[in-house]
Structure formats: C-alpha cells, structure tokens
Amino acid sequence: MKKIYLNPSDMPTQWYNILADLPQLAPPISPATGKPATPEEMLAIFPGPILEQEMSAQRHIDIPEEVLDILTIWRPSPVVRAERLEKALGTKCRIYYKYEGGSPAGSHKTNTAVPQAYYNKISGINKLTTETGAGQWGSALSYATSIFEMSLRVYMVKVSYFQKPYRKSFMNMFGAEVIPSPSNLTNAGRAELERDPQSHGSLGLAISEAVEEAASNSDTNYALGSVLNHVIIHQSLIGLEAKKQMEIGGDYPDMVFASCGGGSNFGGIAAPFVKDKMDGKKVECVAMEPISCPTLTKGEYTFDYGDVGKMTPIMQMYTLGHDFMPPAIHAGGLRYHGDSPIVSAMYKQGLIDARSIGQLDVFKYGTLFAKTEGIIPAPESSHAIAGAAKEALACDERGESKSLLFCLSGHGHFDMASYDAYYEGKLEDYSYPEEEIEKSLRSLPKVDLD
Amino acid sequence: MKKIYLNPSDMPTQWYNILADLPQLAPPISPATGKPATPEEMLAIFPGPILEQEMSAQRHIDIPEEVLDILTIWRPSPVVRAERLEKALGTKCRIYYKYEGGSPAGSHKTNTAVPQAYYNKISGINKLTTETGAGQWGSALSYATSIFEMSLRVYMVKVSYFQKPYRKSFMNMFGAEVIPSPSNLTNAGRAELERDPQSHGSLGLAISEAVEEAASNSDTNYALGSVLNHVIIHQSLIGLEAKKQMEIGGDYPDMVFASCGGGSNFGGIAAPFVKDKMDGKKVECVAMEPISCPTLTKGEYTFDYGDVGKMTPIMQMYTLGHDFMPPAIHAGGLRYHGDSPIVSAMYKQGLIDARSIGQLDVFKYGTLFAKTEGIIPAPESSHAIAGAAKEALACDERGESKSLLFCLSGHGHFDMASYDAYYEGKLEDYSYPEEEIEKSLRSLPKVDLD
C-alpha cells in the first residue's frame, strides 16, 4: 500500500499528553525572581486553558469540537510508503513518511496554531503577538488568527524579512502585521538597535520583543510555536495518526526520525511511540539536528532562558546557552539554542536518541527525495529524510532490513533560494562550533528551586 | 462528507477520449503547404504513440502501467466540499472543488507531462524541448523527464524568467535547462531580438523557439502542455475521478467550472461531464477566461496558427489571432490567443458555456478561498473559484440551490508577488481589448482542406 489515508472521522479526538508518563518536570522559573513562576506571571502572556495544559498530568485531553472542525480541513495527513526513494537508495528497508506539508501554512505548525488561537479567543483575548524566523510559524498563526478573527503582530527576524519576502506576503494575506525585528517598538528591540543599528536580528531577540509587547498590554497574549509542553501535546496528533496508519499498512516502525529545533515536530511524532517504548515495545525515536546547532548532542541539561533578552521563563532543558548564535544555515527553523523540556527529559531519560547532520547531506538527500517522491521538502524536514536514508544504507551494510518512519514536516516551496545556493555550490558544512558553545554556556541563569 | 478520497486502486485505468463522441474535427494543417499536415511532418516533433492518440477515435484508452505507477504518487486527487467558503458566501448552494495542486509541480500539468515523457522515451527519444510562460508546464515536464532520465530544454518567456526566479530554480532542480526566450539559439528568437533587442518575449514566440529546435534535430521532440487532443485526453482523469467522487458523496454537479487558457484543465474536468450531457444528463460546464484574453467569448471560430512564428500546425479553433498580445495580467497560464480544438468544438456545438471575468474579481474570490479553505490558489485557478462563487450568489438571488463543482487546478505558492500587487492596489481590471483583437484577426492563414 503506497499511501495510507485515514478518514476525517477516524481522526483522533484527544491529544496525548506524555507529561502523564514522564517523571515530573521542573517548573518554569521566573526570570525576575529565579524562583518558580507564579500563575499570575504566566497569565500575563498565556490564557488559562493553555496554562492548564502546560501543567496538566492528564494523559488524554479532549480536542475541542471547534478545533477539530478546522484541523480536518487538512487532517488526517497521509502516511506514504517511499517506494521510489527506497529504490533509488537500493535499500532493503521499508521507508515511510508522514506528510504534514498539506496544511494551509505548509507545515505541521498549523496543528498547534489553531488550538492556541482558539483558547485565547474563548478567554477573551483578541490580539496575539509572536515571532517567526523562517516564517513557518508566523504563517501558521496568521492563518489561525484569521479563522478566529483576531489580530496578530509577528516580529520577523530581520534577515528573513528581507530574504523571504513571500513568507511576509503570506502573513499579510491572512491579515497579520509583520514587523522586522529588531524594531523600535520594544525596549528589547531598541537596545539591540542601539548596540548595532545594522543588526540582522535573531529568533531569541524576536521572542523577547513579542513577549515584551504581550506582557505590557493586558489585552494582548503571546503564542509560541514550539518548545512548550502544550505545543508538544497539540502536535501529538502526528504520532497518533501515524500509529493508526502504520497499523492499517500492516507494519510498525523500528525507528522514527524527525528534525528537531525547538522540538515540536519531533516531540509530536515521537511521543506516542515513546509511550509504546515505555510499555515495552521495541521502537527507537531519533531527533535529527544540524551539526551547527547541536542542542541535544552537544548541549548541557540545565536551566536556561528561552530567549536572548531573558524575558521568558527559565526552563530545564538541553541548551547551548541563550547567547549562542548559530551560523546562518538555511534551515532557519532549527536555529534555536534550547530544546523543548519534554524532548529534553525524554533524551535525559534515554527514551529517545539524537543525531546531528551537516547541511550538504541534508540537501543531498532532500533533493533525492524531491526527484523520487515528487515533493520538494523544507530544508528543516530534509534533516529527517537524511536521517532515515542514512540509517537505511547503514542497515543494508549490516545486512538488516528495518521499517523506518520519518516526519516530512513541511514543503519547501518558499525555500527555493536555499536550493539555488546548494546547486550553485554555495553551501558548506559548518563544523561543530565548540568554542562558541563553551563561551555561551558560561552565562546560565541562577535558579532557586526551594 | 467534507473530503472525498478515492483509493489509488480505484483510480481510472483508462483515459476518456471525447473525440469518439464529437463530430470529426478538422485535421491539423501544415503551415508550409496550407494542406492537411502529413504524418512525416508531425513525426518530426511528436512520437508515434502521441500522434496516434491525437487522431484516435477510440473512446477509452488504456493508461500504461508505468504511467499509472507514477500518477498514483499524487493521484487520485481529492474532491472537497468547500463548506467554509459556502458559509462565508452565505449561499445555499453546495460547492465542491477538485484539487490538483498536490502534484509534484503543484498543478494539473503533471497529469499529461508524465505520459508525454513516457511515450517519447519508449519511442527512443531522450531529449525534449518545450516552452513555459508562468512556469507551471515547464516544472511539470522537468519532473516527468527527470523520472524517465531524459534531458529537457525549456524556453521560458523572458519576462517570467526574471519575475519568477523560483520557477526556474524548480526546473533546474529537476535537471532541466532553462533558456530565457527570445534567445539567440533559434531563427525565431534571433529575428525577434533583431526587431527588439529588449523584447520581453511571449508564449507564442517561446513555442516557436521550442518547435524550431525539435523540428531541426532528429533526436529531439517537442512537448506541449495544453491545446492538443492528446493533452485533453490525458487530463480526462480529472473529470473521471471527480464523477466517481461526487457519486461517493451522493451528489451530482449542476454546473462544472474551470479556468480556460489553452483548455487542458477545463477540457480535462469537463469532457466526462459533457459525455453525460450528450447522454441526456443535465449538467452545464463553464469555461472561465480572463476579460483581457477572451478567446471563447469574443474570438472567432476559424483556422489559425498555434504560435507567433507560424511554426506549429494550423488548427480549427476559437482564436483572437496569433498576433494577439494580451495585457500583462498575472494569470500567465491564461494568456493564449487560441483554444484547444476539442474545447472549441464543444463550445461551437453548444455543449459547454463560457464566461469571462476581470482580475479584481479573480483575486477577491481567490483570497476569500484562501482564508476559508486554507489553500492559496494559483491566479489561473481563481478564475474557476470566482466563477463558482458568483454563480452561487446569483443562484441565491434567484432562490435556487445548485450543486457546483470547480477545478482548483493549482496552488499559488509561486505566485505570491501577484497577491502582493493585489493587496497594494496595483492591479486593475483591463477592459476587453476590442481593437487589438480586430486587428489581430486580420492576419489569419489561408487553408486548403480539399
């Protein structure tokens, strides 16, 4: 069976919350006090129902009817047997991919944008702020706020704002206001512009700007597209559907691959399989990250800020240090210094594996996938393709035949410039930036958990 | 039922050839002699199996196994009930769309690119030439030639070459060579460059260049993405699938809408429904064309060249005259002076209807569709959306409730610049260019059918 569809009526109606099955995570810490953040501090930027999910120990959480209704515009997403890729690799492994690129914004990000907009709306909030790097998350949230007739301001990392004008067009089309960051609308932005008037911006700084605006306006909340627990919970749909589909296809994956930046795409597909693993099933989930930003494979498990401006709660996670500025690789969605506390805990517990990969391999296998399977992948997603493809070849060398599943988290229709750069030979493999990371890890915050 | 899928195993295994059910069409006429083209003349640029289909009177034609195998990478395509669009319009009509944008190149063009590449390959041809305007057809054929390991040279209208660099990147990625037209590689290109060294090019001229190269090299054939009979036959899959899907959904369309440039998308979805109409069923198929290039609604049914350079066979069709140069509207795929002989004959026979529409309405309903259904449509496809939406509103005024089906022939991910232009108020409604058409219709070729 080449493509495995689920009917909308067979779509899961509950999210899976892996917090119920993990040892309790450390609470988010207030950057102001160094002590666990109070509900009041969190409610300044998040609505009640989102905070509740963030702390929930409930294993299964009902998806509201209104959210399901919108998700079924593009869900369930297909699982596809990558027969032509297998043939091109000459592998005896079975390779499947779960394709999230059919969503309105072209990636898995819409899965959490819709419930986040919904929970804010029913909590009386009509205005959201957020940040975006490559533009995927800003696009997804602009679609969701458009559906619920809310207003949205997106702080877009300045270098992307000018390099990816069509992502800006996308957000404008769905009614969002897009501001290049650093901007002079916030203290964080003004400080950076004072330091360097030509600053290109960074994801961490754009987060600071968006959080600052939400925290200082009572009618405005903030939404984040990755990292936080509720985001991983919303993305669990990917793994829940994939499990059903693999069962329909009469197979079960020995290994599951997904790219990992903040962790929402990886956590989303992995969590339901990690639950299987805890229940004794044999399955290995592998987070694929860029060599140039190797948070899990080379970072430290500790407490750190989520942003450069130290505005966000401090979280226990794998981090390269909040000051870490990765080289400008094209997979903008994976250039984050930290990692989701849930994904970090799973890694710390030995429940998942992580591997890093250079961008030449990423583009090599990404273009092979395009030519064989007919979908141009986002460079972020190509990390997962490359992970699965290299594993397949390694299996062949060892004389093994495995079932490999990966998440194709988005299409690359807005990333053609990076393919041009690849074909023009302009991309190089950055080596692991050891000194940068060591330096950055020296400025971790102090935390008082008692 | 919101989305109606067909399993790949339920995909039609034969194309429908409406030539079997229409009065015999006039043969293609040689531009050299003014008499019916000889097989030798046609075989200079097309392979035998394609020519056979071009002239076939066989009602159902088997789809080769190798072609089916590739088509099922993205087919069958879904039929979707546009519930949110209906709600936004406040209509009592039921609106469905058949979505062709999930294909590798993002439009219906891939449906014919694959069999055309295949038939050339099995005829011993390893090199193709073609032209592309907006880039959809060039992208589709580059995908298909990549699959069959053939080489491809695409003459891309110069103004698009520079305005749509990512379409060029797409074709390069799949191994095609992209040449801005006019080029100095052909006599037709050199003549135009002599006339105007700054020439922006046109689709008609790019066709001349591609045909000239194929005609003067025995190892090279030419492939066309629309107009010709075999293309309409290949695209009949759209209508055949849609009929099955509407039946599964328990409905049958009162009206079917599709945009119409050369006619492949319209002819593809319409032909199987026109057959129903000939068999006594009540269904109305409407070809939607731009006011600025109103081939069916304002053209003449006569014999004309398919290109500016008078290289192609002369065909009996609706035409605005091969010299007609439409204003630069953004739906580049609809800027063609002629129309498919099959579609022209259906219109002449009263089997279909045609309407023209201005681009402000096209973008108005296109953006409404994006916001409600979550897919950014290609501007070409938005002609169909607008046709169906305006019909729905007209039905409501008349107190009728109809079932309306349209073909969403492609996504607009590579057309964001035209959405920017719309939101910036830079688009205008061109009026019907009456004098231009009158002038252009004065230079029709002489034809001798005896």
TrEMBL record, chains A, B:
A single MF term (Gene Ontology): tryptophan synthase activity
Domain Tryptophan synthase beta chain-like PALP span(s) in chain numbering: 73-409
Cofactor(s) the record lists: pyridoxal 5'-phosphate
Top-level taxon in the UniProt lineage: Bacteria
UniProt cross-references to SUPFAM superfamilies, sorted A to Z: Tryptophan synthase beta subunit-like PLP-dependent enzymes
Enzyme class: lyase
InterPro entries in the cross-refs: Trp_synth_b-like, Trp_synth_beta/beta-like, TrpB-like_PALP, TrpB-like_PALP_sf
Pathway in which the depicted protein is active: Amino-acid biosynthesis; L-tryptophan biosynthesis; L-tryptophan from chorismate: step 5/5
Catalytic activity: (1S,2R)-1-C-(indol-3-yl)glycerol 3-phosphate + L-serine = D-glyceraldehyde 3-phosphate + L-tryptophan + H2O
Keyword Mitochondrion: no
Gene Ontology cellular component list: cytoplasm
Entry EC number(s): 4.2.1.20
Key words, A-Z: Amino-acid biosynthesis, Aromatic amino acid biosynthesis, Lyase, Pyridoxal phosphate, Tryptophan biosynthesis
Subunit annotation: Tetramer of two alpha and two beta chains.
Protein family membership: Belongs to the TrpB family.
Matches recorded under PANTHER family: TRYPTOPHAN SYNTHASE (PTHR48077:SF6), TRYPTOPHAN SYNTHASE-RELATED (PTHR48077)
Function recorded in the entry: The beta subunit is responsible for the synthesis of L-tryptophan from indole and L-serine.
Protein name: tryptophan synthase
Species this chain originates from: Denitrovibrio acetiphilus (strain DSM 12809 / NBRC 114555 / N2460)
